[in-house]
Amino acid sequence: MTETPGIWQRLWAGRVARTAFIVLALVTLSAIAGPALMPAGSGEVSGNQFSPPAWAHPFGTDLNGRDVLYRVLEGARVSLLVGFSGALISFFVGTAYGLVAGYAGGRTDEGMMRAVEILYSIPRLIIILIFINAFDSHLKTWMAGAGLNGLVADSRVVILILCLGLIEWLTMARIVRGQVLALKAQQFVAAAQALGQSHFKILTRHLLPNLLGIVVVYLTLTVPAVILDESFLSFLGLGIQPPQASWGSLLANGAEVINPIRSNWWLLVFPALAMCVTLLALNFLGDAIREAADPRARRA
Amino acid sequence: MITFIIRRVVSLLFVLFCVVTITFLLIRLAPGGPFDRERKIPPQIEKELLAKYKLDGPLWQQYRGYIWDVAHGDLRLSTKYRNRSVNELLAQSLPVSGTLGAIAFLIATAGGVWVGAYAAVRHGTAADTWAMLGALLAISIPTFVIGPLLILAFALKLNWLPVGGWGGVACLVLPAITLASPYVAYIARLMRTSMLEVLGLDFIRTARAKGLDDGRIIFKHALKVAILPVISFLGPLAANLLTGSIVVESIFNIPGAGGFFVNSIQNRDGFLLGGVVIVYCALLVVMNLAVDLIYMGLDRRIRLYD
Asked: Chain B contact for A126, CB < 8 A?
């Protein structure tokens, strides 16, 4: 990292950032280890339908008698996986696109940014939905053909990650391009060019390291955006398919079974809590990283 | 000014053309023919339908036919709700979505501007802190969490408002609040930042020195300038309300266009999906143009057409 030294220390010194970081670490840890630590059969279908929270089932049980805590942890796995991998894809695509556009300049730059603008003017979730609609079954066929049979059941997760990652890069590309335009005018780039270095080397050795700081900042803000989008899709029934769960699909199930006679509130409240706490922590952390990286932003 | 509008309209048409193209290609990429159903239709009818829409030819002919029809305002037949045209379905459902969207739009802008301006004027007090904390919460909680929780509280526990459905003002309250809540918060934050900045400017000090009272300064002078960032957010706001309404309609069982959008994907109803997407995008680009014009009208110093 070429940021001024001390950014991570400054970050850790902030109470908000530290709390957010610890919360996120806890959520991630329990998502990874939690399901294995719970009593065997927690995630199995049982006759114990809609039992309210109690010692045996701290979050209650759902329509199929499964433990809601177990489901929330399973959902956390999917939501976090989609969030982080989707953000990572958007990082690669957006950075590469912005680098090339900014470095090439002129007509190429204009054309590439025009395309970004057009994509911007279409609501991104609508594009994502059409993408999933178009490619889901193709991906399944391809996976089955390529001998990836074990993955076919998870094809929805894969397509969600791909689609969300491939749509969420627009802002990243804009930011990177702006930075490259500014950096390009500096002398070290001219020096590298005068020394006869290849364009590829200039891009990867000279420009990229100078960009990483700001890119990391936006990456932390992309993760909650992707998690939010994934749960939006799953809530509509167009994302993760049962029996797999994500926070969005759990919320959808919870919203379905509330009725005037029995509210079954625990099916709604616990997934909502898990999701909101995670999103809040991610947003706080993102803001804190931005502030630590750019002291000028603190005024706003 | 005129050249600016003409240029914007041309680029608007170009964007729409791209949207139609992308949508068409992606829909044709999805497996299965447009009239494949579990309940088979007679082969003769299917053949005639395919011929009518030129879907029996090569892809470019299909595409040309679709562009031609869309350009003439014909969004074709829904393949799921057979015998009904997409135009008909949209004419029935768009007013519902539009009403909900317009009310949420009003709540978001009016509420956001008020809260933000109030927080800025009371800068540093407890009211400011609480307003901004509440805003951060409202931004972080997605609509599909707020909606069901509001139903749980106000419709099921307190029994004040209906759970969902359409008809009557009472049905509108919860959905509109749900849809607007994140954007009230977002606009409040925008407004507060910009108001704080404006209140520190020279012309406000001059107004104070002239002895104008606070109310006059804030409403007549500061608000007019401070509201500009909010105006430029109105375009994205419309886009967000549009996608947001899909979820809110599904939570509250509202018979709007969002429901058709979700159904058309589940049913692989290509023309309905295409129709909803095209109409949504058309609404958006027109909205964006309107926002730019308002912006120019409000601030003469901004010259977008340079």
From this structure: yes
- d(Cα A128, Cα A35) in Å, to the nearest integer? 30
Note which residues in 149-208 of chain A have CB less than 8 A from chain B.
none
pTM comes to 0.79
d(CA B97, CA A209): 47
Nearest Cα neighbor of B225 from B292, B121, B298 is B298
The first and second tokens of residue B281, run together, are: 């995008």
Beta bridge partners of A61: A67
Residue with tokens 């489901």: A71
The structure tokens 């908000």 sit at A16
Separation between Cα atoms, residue A153 and residue A140, nearest integer Å: 9
Predicted pLDDT of residue A1: 46
- Report how far apart, in Å, the C-alpha atoms of B200 and of each of B123, B135, B213, B226 are: 12, 23, 16, 11
Contact A220, A285 (CB under 8 A): yes
Q: List beta partners, residue B77.
A: B85
CB contact under 8 A, B284 and A275: no
Tell me if B152 and A232 make a contact (CB, 8 A cut-off).
no
In angstroms, what CA-CA distances link B57 with B27, B60, B277, B300? 16, 8, 24, 53
At B36-91, the pLDDT tens digits run 555 566 777 777 777 766 666 777 777 777 777 777 777 777 777 767 777 778 87
- Read off the pLDDT of residues A89-133 as tens digits, 9 standing for 90 and up: 988 888 889 888 888 877 888 888 878 877 777 777 777 877 777
The candidate with the shortest Cα–Cα distance to A94, out of A147, A21, A165, is A165
DSSP string over A207-261: IHHHHHHHHHHHHHHHHHHHHHHHHHHHHTTSSSPTTS--HHHHHHHHHHH--SS
Distance CA A180, CA A104 (A): 10
3-class SS of residue A61: strand
Please spell the DSSP secondary structure of A135-157, one letter per residue. HHHHHHHHHHHTT-GGGGGGHHH
Token digits of residue B278: 């095209």
CA distance A279 to chain B (A): 6
Residues in A touching B137 (Cβ below 8 Å):
280
Chain B partners within 8 Å of A276 (Cβ): 140-141, 145
